[in-house]
Write a structure and sequence with these properties.
This protein is 16% helix and 43% strand. The protein is built from three helices and twelve strands, in the order H-E-E-E-E-E-H-E-H-E-E-E-E-E-E. The longest helix has 9 residues.
Length: 166
Amino acid sequence: MKDTATRALDPLHFRSVMGAFPTGVSVVTSRLADGSPAGLTVNSLTSVSLSPLLLLVCIDHGSSSHSAILDSGAFAVNLLGEEERDLSETFARGERDERFAELEWGEGPTGSPILSQALGWIDCRVHQTHVAGDHTIVVGRVVGYELADGWPLVYHRGGYARLERP
């Protein structure tokens, strides 16, 4: 391992290092001011507290979903199953107006979009926000959730991976 004192801090190398940590993949959804749905793919999701039920997601300031979440005060985390790779890619790269086209979805308790194909969902009201670099850490207070049977979609080293079955 190279001596860290001699290596320059490089954002691309840091991204590569963080990519060695496997994460689940989810689509965070909310509503824009006009009521239309918004969403983006994230892999930064963490449970924060069980009392009260809190979780956090990190949202890029450049995302159209950033203002939707902050303005509406609510969001849903749609946990993707291993078969939802296309959904992950659509919400990561697709045009905002096309992300919900031909997609079945309903509403969670907050009115945030819940994707029918998702392995599970967690609906939240914004509890706290913290600006951190080019992202906002959004802490959500959980108001509802569901989980179906299945295996999660996992992201590792810049690509999708599958968990080994026990």
